[in-house]
Amino acid sequence: MRSSRKPFPTHLIVFLAPAVLIYTIFMIWPLLDSLRLSFIGGSGAQAGQFVGLQNYITLLTDPQWSPRFWGALRNNLLFFAIHMCVQNPIGLLLAVLLNGRVLRGRAVYRTVLFAPTMLSVVIVGFVWQLILNPLWGIASSILGFVGLGSLYQPWLGLESTALPTLSLISVWQFIGIPMMLFLTALLAIPDELDEAARVDGAGAWSTFWRIKFPLILPTVGIVTVLTFVGNFNAFDLVYAVKGAIAGPNFSTDLLGTLFYRTFFGFQLQPGNPPMGTTVAMLIFLIILAGVLMYLFVWQRRVLTYEL
Amino acid sequence: MLHSSRRSALSALVMLLLLAACGAPATAPSGNTSTDASSAPAASASTAATTASGGQVTLTVESWRNDDLTIWQNTIIPAFEKNYPNIKINFQPTAPTEYNSALNTKLQGGTAGDLITCRPFDVSLQLFNDGYLAPLSDLKGMENFSDVAKSAWITDDGKTPFCVPMASVIHGFIYNQDAFAKAGVTPPTTQAEFIAALEKIKQDGTYTPLAMGTADQWEAATMGFQNIGPNYWKGEEGRQALLKGSAKFTDAPYVETWKALASWQPYLPSGYEAVKYPDAQQLFTLGKAAIYPAGSWEISLFNKDAKFKMGAFKPPVANAGDQCYISDHTDIGLGMNAKSAHPAEARQFLEWLTTAEFAELYSNELPGFFSLSTHQVKLNDPLAQEFVSWRGECQSTIRNSYQILSRGEPNLENELWRVNAQLLNGQLSPEQAGQEIQTGLDKWYKPAS
Predict the structure, then answer these.
(1) Contact predicate B367/B188, CB 8 Å
(2) Which of A235, A260, A268 to mutate to probe the B interface, most B CBs <10 Å?
(3) Are B174 and B284 in contact (CB under 8 A)?
(4) In terms of Cα–Cα distance, which of B329, B274, B269 is closest to B297?
(5) Which long-range contacts (CB under 8 A, 24 or more apart) does B39-42 make?
(6) Interchain contact, B271 vs A247, CB within 8 Å
(7) What is the pLDDT of residues B84-136, one digit of tens each?
(8) Is residue B234 part of a domain?
(9) CATH of residue B139
(10) Per the structure, how many domains does chain B have?
(11) Angle (CA) A126 A258 A40, round 5°
């Protein structure tokens, strides 16, 4: 009786409708349509016909396509690894320094360190190209000034160093984001814990590693997953600095630039939308796998403390 | 009571939201159609009356030549509008690297301009085959262009042209006369003299011998390989042989070209691997470099920026007395959007492009872009005159990757960029370069023998 009299929760529809509508129109439908497009032949005799998984097989195994895909994936992993090893630890270190009481002018440092994040990638790319420019860049003169002029290389132009250099430029730009997230988490830790630890005779080092770090572990997870998603979607910096052909010799090619080049074409190369969406679907699957790992492996294991 | 009234209020809200959701798209397009409808009859009326009524029509020109914006606005458009006062031209350029994809998107979305600047060969042919460009077979004035000029914008059967040829660009070398005087060098004619001159400039030490980098990759292919190559593969003869499949990139002429290109390496600026195209341009116009491997399109910029006297010499030949060949590349055409709302006016503009008046105006306002028409045009710029004079002594050809050979994947043009940059970066030998290019081409190109 009671259940039959329970009114239909109309308000739920009202509150859900805007989000459902917008997500359906701008996310779910394009995603499904991309999936459909990736099952269609892109060039040659099969153009426009349903080809099943053929595009995926071509992309992953064809001697012409697969080196580009695996190369881009390898570059992307390196790009991610550099962010994880450089951006996030330094972001944490900066957050700890800004959280401590020894430093004067913390608000100024915080703003300055966060500022590059708000700049356009195009500007960042342009400025760093000027700094590192072999003809008029100040990098070589600064190195020369301290007697290390022989260390200067045209880093952005060499196959071995172009991608690490771009990664470090990106690290420089986005270091403010992990720093802010870590700082917020650190600020949320009550002072009592710090004081109690000090009373018990713990130094700064062990206070951090035994008390604070376990408390901010959930934030470490969030920063990791944000870095992962951001890095595997990365495209703009490489496009701004090296163009869609991601030279030299594809050494800076990320999945994003591979997608752009394939989908829209480049110079005399015509675009191949079905193959492009195939790349896009694989990017989606990679990111999905990473996020699912975060949700089901990390989030279930990590302990969140109520403070 | 309260409960039910809240429910009815909520359901009313839902209805409102739904109405708004359905209503918004329904009203927005109708608003658009009404404005479209009001302008469309006006347009068709003006075309029907052949503009006798004096109704103003605005034609938008899509282009990648954003460098030319002021010349169009100050010279070309006023000259046209003087003859055709009822037509206003709106020149709307996009950045060169984004032009193709931006134009495609606009054409697919139906928002592209009335007149479309045409890239040569397959990119435009594709647009024509997709129905985005209108056929121009019966356009008055097309007889003012040679078959070679028209070849870049015509169907494979050679019957239907779809863009009016506007200009070609010629490759060569621009040099700083002060630098040549300082190092005691005269313009070289053979490859041996060229290297000797570079060596002398390097020994002198005042100037960087060659202003070019490989960071953007295309300069190595376009200003390097396609610039000096025609002398080795004998211009059109070699290009046609590649199309027929009777020549391969692993053959001696191509390996020789790459050997000659690789010999430039010691004379490039330090850190050339990260030197971009604008860097190289500035290095030369600031008077810090002696020779700039050029396309003639650089002339107007260099005239504006360089404060020293410049000269030009044509690509050096292998041995003294050899027949010379130049890359006289059909580069720009103008076509008509098949869905243009003002086809009659667009055709009037295209017809004007075939006249001697336009040829004279364009070639002189944009020195370095040489009219492809058969009109006799006098050039006032000495540097441009020097480039165009080579047409008399040498045989002309176009870049070998542009016609047909860039239709497949991997794309020959993009591969040439990559491989030539690799060659100059010292990562590939001339033989390996030939091997890589030919392997890529063999993957998809089957000559129709």
Answers:
(1) no
(2) A268
(3) yes
(4) B329
(5) B39/B341, B40/B341
(6) no
(7) 999 999 999 998 878 888 898 899 888 999 999 999 888 899 899 989 999 99
(8) yes
(9) 3.40.190.10
(10) 2
(11) 145
